[in-house]
Amino acid sequence: MYFEEPAIYLNWMRIREAHLEGERVKRVVREAAKELTGVAGAFTNSELLIMNRDVSDLEAAVRNSFRADRSGDILLALKPGYIWNYSDTGTTHGQPVEADQHVPLMLWGDGIVHGSFDDDVAPTDLAKSLGKLLGVDAGGALTQVLPCIAQ
């Protein structure tokens, strides 16, 4: 087992060698992780794959950054005010908390509309917006041009 923010990756070879049931191991590790100071929630990748059930706001936020092909076996979310302590910077990002879900962005120059905007946008919208300024198609079909870009 190893940890890489924000996920725990299990050693599946060892689990098979020990003749353990994988889903049960994930649930046990998930419950143990929930007991750690600063952990707001923990979710198995199997839980995150079940789409036809009601989920908490926290689980919905974790799902938004979950990728079945890359995410770990158990994903952790920290309580507001907590960060992973793996560097001397005192900062991190990527948690499903208010402070990490809203990032200020400032643009200026030709083609930029003066003002302050508080729209729901995604990071991928930046590619489409910069593409519009440069006269190229970027960002994909599901992205939008930011409201601060002159139309």
Give the overall shape.
Answer: elongated
Strand content: 5-15%
Give the helix tally.
Answer: 6
How many domains in all?
2
Low-pLDDT parts are none
Mean pLDDT: 89
Could you explain the architecture of this structure?
With 151 residues, the protein is an alpha+beta fold. It has two domains: 2-100, Gyrase A, domain 2, CATH 3.30.1360.150; 104-151, no CATH class. Helices cover 31% and strands 11% of the residues. It has a four-stranded antiparallel β-sheet with strand order 1-2-4-3, sandwiched between helices. β1 and β2 form a beta hairpin. The model has no long low-confidence stretch (mean pLDDT 89).
Short key terms for the protein model shown above:
151 residues, elongated, Gyrase A, domain 2, single chain, 2 domains, 6 helices, alpha+beta, four-stranded antiparallel beta sheet, 4 strands
Summarize the structure.
With 151 residues, the protein is an alpha+beta fold.
Topology at a glance:
Elements: E1 2-4, E2 7-9, H1 12-17, H2 22-34, E3 39-44, H3 45-49, H4 57-64, E4 74-78, H5 98-101, H6 124-134
